[in-house]
Design brief:
single chain, 390 residues, alpha/beta, Rossmann fold, UDP-N-acetylmuramoyl-L-alanine:D-glutamate ligase, Protein-Tyrosine Phosphatase, Chain A, six-stranded mixed β-sheet, 11 helices, 21% strand, globular
């Protein structure tokens, strides 16, 4: 219990990553509390942790503050990246980074380590039902999903690093894809063992998660597992039982012949891959509902986002919600709507409730509705199911 006696107050505790750090800190013996602006899908993983919602963070006197990147303007404290680096230094670690697939790849690695008796710990930016959440302790390898969006992955010093892909997704942190590649090269230069997914062939296994992208994720996971000492045969036998991560093509419900799925995809590549996978699984229409989340991404990539959403038959786009960067004049979700191909039925739905109303009105039996985005599309998906039931 290396954190016994410490009292930690996590600001932004409802975030995908920092909620996992909070859970890990509690498991390692710390007293944990936290704050966030509003409820999130990760709050359910924080059972037993006192959380302040709304207003401004007010840590109890004498508590250490750990601050997420999105809230550094609110309060002083230890940056979440520094706290994660502290956790990674406590035991042999495997860190997974990249633009796409890092959550699933990290979850695959942790799942196989657990199934093969290796007693792993994990800190993953997604809820993994088969692991019981987004964080867990063990005496073996620590599996961590890193984050290049704020360059914090560069402060981690694992024994094994996995990079799923390099694609410019965080325009506020990197001026170009070349700069992003240079950043990864500099980080990887100091790590003993490195897996670059693009050097590998997709696996030919019958996985329990659909899509060619997951066959590539599995290839990277298996390569890391071999470096960690798990035999290929044992790893392959286990990985086929992995059933996925929350908000990764997650079935939310079926009502009136309409299937509703929620997905974390938020940039053009992820949206396109998910829609291509969905097209192979259904004969009905595809209705995409997308919530933009980052102002600069929307400004830079609205044409590409429109093209990706154009793989659906119907595309509904909300305004930028819960943006973590400053607003800019003229940059709204309407830029994405205006970039949709003409053959797509387009819906401009500034608010969540507008998106729900359009999806319910336009869906018909046999359709597959997919909500996309980082923030709260899961709420839209649930509301669509409820609306279809009325």
């Amino acid at each position: 219990m290396p954190l016994r006696g410490r009292r930690l107050y996590f600001v932004g505790i409802g975030g995908s990553g920092i909620s996992a750090y909070a859970n890990m800190a509690r498991a390692l013996g710390a007293d944990v509390r936290g704050w966030d602006l509003h409820d999130t899908i990760f709050m359910g993983s924080l059972e037993g942790i006192e959380v302040d919602l709304g207003g401004e963070p007010t840590p109890p006197e004498g508590w250490e503050v750990v601050v997420s990147t999105a809230h550094t303007h609110r309060i002083e404290g230890t940056p979440r990246a520094a706290f994660l680096a502290e956790l990674v230094a406590t035991q042999p670690s495997i860190v997974v980074g990249g633009a796409h697939g890092k959550t699933t790849t990290a979850a695959m690695i942790a799942y196989v380590l657990q199934k093969t008796g290796e007693d792993p710990a994990w800190i993953i930016g997604g809820l993994v039902p088969q692991l019981g959440g987004n964080a867990g302790t063990g005496g073996g390898w620590l599996v961590v999903e890193g984050d290049e969006s704020d360059r914090s992955i560069g402060s981690l010093a694992p024994q094994i690093a996995v990079v799923t892909n390099i694609e410019l997704d965080h325009h506020a942190s990197y001026a170009s894809e070349a700069e992003l590649g240079e950043f990864f090269d500099a980080w990887l230069a100091g790590i003993p063992h490195v897996v670059r997914s693009w050097d590998l062939e997709p696996v030919e296994l019958q996985l329990s998660v659909p899509g060619d992208h997951n066959r590539q994720n599995a290839a990277a996971a298996l390569a890391a597992l071999e470096l960690a000492g798990v035999t290929r045969a044992d790893a392959e036998a286990a990985i086929v039982g992995f059933t996925g991560v929350g908000r990764r093509f997650e079935l939310v419900g079926e009502e009136g012949g309409v299937t509703v799925v929620d997905d974390y995809g938020h940039n053009p590549t992820e949206i396109a891959v998910t829609l291509e996978t969905a097209r192979s699984l259904t004969a009905g229409r595809l209705i995409a509902v997308y919530q933009p989340h980052v102002v600069e991404r929307t400004r830079q990539l609205h044409a590409e986002l429109g093209a990706a959403l154009g793989l659906a038959d119907v595309a509904i786009v909300t305004d930028i919600i819960g943006a973590r960067d400053a607003p800019r004049d003229g940059v709204t979700g309407k830029l994405v709507v205006d970039s949709l191909p003409q053959h797509v039925r387009a819906g401009w739905a500034p608010r969540h409730e507008d998106a729900v109303a359009l999806a319910v009105a336009w869906a018909r039996p046999g359709d597959l509705v997919i909500t996309f985005g980082v923030g709260e599309p899961w709420k839209i998906a649930r509301a669509i199911v409820d609306g279809l039931a009325r």
